[in-house]
Each structure stands twice: as structure tokens, then as C-alpha cells.
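Escalation from tier 1.

The customer reports that the assembly of four entities below gives different C-alpha cells on two consecutive runs. Tier 1 could not reproduce it. I'm attaching the input and our single run for tier 2 to review.
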Amino acid sequence: MISSDVIRGYNDTFLLSLLNQGDSYGYELSRQIKEKTDGDYIIKETTMYSAFTRLSKKGYIISYPGTVTQGKKRTYYSITLEGKMHLKEKQEEWHITREVVDHLVKGEDK
Amino acid sequence: MISSDVIRGYNDTFLLSLLNQGDSYGYELSRQIKEKTDGDYIIKETTMYSAFTRLSKKGYIISYPGTVTQGKKRTYYSITLEGKMHLKEKQEEWHITREVVDHLVKGEDK
DNA sequence: ACATGTACTTCATCTGTCGTTGTACTTAGT
DNA sequence: ACTAAGTACAACGACAGATGAAGTACATGT
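Tier 1 run:
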């Protein structure tokens, strides 16, 4: 289990990255995250749905009602062009971040 | 420049990691972070000093007044045994986190 | 009849970060 | 002598993302 403070702010990127592979909806995306990390990271429902609102406001995703319904109605999300551009930036940022944290977390001399 | 939301919660670990190499004080630690990351990450003063309070309350560090003074009086910090244990946990956690984020950020199939 | 799974929503709260401002002393430059 | 810049820390309020708790709604299995 991973402390969420580390991930904070990267949830949006996770969702964008998954949506970049094709439209999907909340429940499905949360299952994908769980699967792809072998259960190491499980996104909280509230975290995810608040991320959707945020990403929509920023214009990174758009939503449309799902036709195929099982239980409650689904809301599908689609990544926009701005969303794709933002994703790319975040992907590049992550590489730098990883190096920085890597270096600072283990107390190594240069 | 790295967005701080990514680093959030890892500032404590950075400071502990640096203190693990020897006692130090705020200003010096902030300079070390800047240097070690080649300016990619600069910790904000307020963030750092609030981290000290937090770490002290948790018993991960202890403080003592500095004798050598240049300008305003220094407060030195020392990592405790609990601090070292916590650091180790966080270091291990980081490795898992890195893999998880790595995997989710780039939209790869398994 | 009742639990479980699907799918989403609202609301209040918490925590770490950040911007702003202030204190206080020293050294270097003109 | 004056001033800017560097050293070193502290207090305060505000913000945003994450969280817990609870609720809505329907379908399926036993």
C-alpha cells in the first residue's frame, strides 16, 4: 500500500494516461489502476470522481452518457487534445521528478 | 522546476535522509537540496520549517541550539532512532511507488 | 428476502504547501 | 556612513487535493 501523499497530484495523470488508450468510465478505470499495479495502488472513489470534475473544468477530458448500462448509469470520459498535451508535459515532468526523489531519498554523495 | 504536489509528503523524507548523514540546520539543508538536484527542486522555507515541527512532534528528529552563529541564531537538528527507522520504511516505499507511477504514467499494456 | 456488485454523488474535514510579512544580525560594496 | 544582499528563522492565513462517511439506484445470485 502506497501512501497517497506521494501520488498526490498524479492521480490526474494516471487517469489521463488510461483515457489516452481509449474512452472509459470511472469504475472501469479504477479497476484498471488496481490491476496494472497488482493492487499496490487503489484509487479512492472520491479521489477519482473529484479528479474527473477537475479535469473537465480544465478541458482535459469531456464526458458523455453511456448507452450500455449495468446497474447505475455510466458516464464515459474522453481525453481532449489539450488533455493529451498536458499528459505529455506531465510524463516529461515525471522523469525529472523521479531522478530528483531517487537522489534525495537515498542519502548519496555526488 | 518541479510541481510541489508531486513531492508532497516526501519533503520529510528528504530532510531525514540528509540528517541521516549528520546533524545540520535549516538553511544549510535547503541549500543541499538545491545543490543535489542541480536547482531542479528548491524547498520553500515555510514548507521546510513546518516539516521540522512535524518531524519533531513525531519524534523523528530533535533540535538543539547552535553555538556557531553567523547572522541569526541557528537551530540544529539530529535524527533519532525512530527517525532512522521511518526513513528506511519510506525509502522502501519509494521503490514501489516509483514502479507504480512509472507504469501508470506511460500508458503501456502489460 | 438479502447480500453483493456495479456506478456514481454529495459533503465536511484534514493535511501539506505556499505567499506574505516580519525579525535580527553580519558582511560587502560604493 | 549608508545600503543591499546574505544568513537564519517564525507566525499567519489561504488553498487544493485527498479522504471518510453516507447515500442513491439498479441488477444479479442464492
